[in-house]
Amino acid sequence: MTRAVQRMRVLVVAPSRYPLRQPHAGGLEATVWDRVRWLRDRGHEVTLCAAEGSDFLDDSPAFALPAPAWTRVEDASDTFYPEGYARATDAAHEVLLDRLRSGRHDFDVIDNHSLHPAPIRWSRDADIPVVTTLHTPPLEPMLEAAEYARGSAHRFVAVSQATARAWSVEGVDAFVFPNGIDTDRWTRGPGGSRWVWSGRIVPEKAPHLAIEAARTAGAEIVVAGRIGDVDYFQQEVAPRLGGPARYVGALHQGDLCRLVGSSAVALVTPMWEEPFGLVIAEALATGTPVAAFDIGGVAEVLAGMPGTAAVTVGDVTALAHAALELARQGEREPLTRVWTRRAAVREHALSRRYRDVERVLTHTALRSREQRMPAVSW
């Protein structure tokens, strides 16, 4: 284990919609799961605040947040909450605030990834420095909390330049620290003939367009991921399955790595302002080339990477042609997978990304501590 330069007591706050455990609900949950592991490996004392059922909560059950309880599976959604859940989470955050106020010296800094506004306000309400990572386009409750926390020991970081610009327009400035992936877990694969799509199955990720692109090119495609919108899946994805298009569900990281790494090309099809696109970095780390819609932070993740192509958002024909060319290039030049993997490790490895984050957490904690120290009079 590599020891940190200065050991910190960190409270990592995760989004509460889904537990942090495999198979990961999405890129956000995977990122925070990796963050906890990495900070602990660096020698920091890390407490996790996350949804019930999360990994890493055994030592801190008092920081478990309620998870949504859906009456019917088909009602589960990445967009809406079941009735009463908002009140339950608000109440849970109030309880946590009281705990933080009474034991504020238990933590040096809060590493906040929540989409709930409360942890942003804790920098003022609990007098604990907070670093909030912006993983989404601007959300009104978080904007209001940011205004409330102005002048306190709070700092924002964003996962891409595109995300930082979107929040800056709303008056919130952020440093840019892109997400990283564990390139010891995301290993190079042998490639193959089929195409692959992975991620949350929701309208804004548009896997149905990936299936259409594969059909246009006459390619087999495998779709993997958690269904985050049942109606969308039943209306747009399920009717396109069968024959050369197959759905394999949500996979644990190791199984997903093997699937992506044994594919000819990965398709990434966001139809919203994609904040980052972790699946791009994951695929590239396996050596699998990526064809993607160019929107949000996608171009930043692809920048300088061999084996990639970006096309106009929603242009299925262009996506099909780009993916077909990448797959053919892989057949002609087998070493392309080696070069792609090396570039992904160089640009997207956790060790590269998180050392910067560690410095921000340390600096925020130390600066807040210095500001609270009484002046010495002689």
TrEMBL record:
Which key words tag this protein in UniProt? Answer: Glycosyltransferase, Transferase
Specify the Glycosyltransferase subfamily 4-like N-terminal domain's residue ranges.
26-185
Taxonomic superkingdom = Bacteria
Instruction: Quote the Gene3D superfamilies the UniProt record gives.
Output: Glycogen Phosphorylase B
Domain (Glycosyl transferase family) ranges: 198-330
Q: Does the keyword Lipid biosynthesis apply?
A: no
* Entry keyword Glycosyltransferase: yes
Record's InterPro entries?
Answer: Glyco_trans_1 (IPR001296), Glyco_trans_4-like_N (IPR028098), Glycosyltransferase_grp1 (IPR050194)
List the GO molecular function terms. Answer: glycosyltransferase activity
Q: What is this protein called?
A: D-inositol 3-phosphate glycosyltransferase
Q: What is the species listed in this Swiss-Prot or TrEMBL entry?
A: Microbacterium mcarthurae
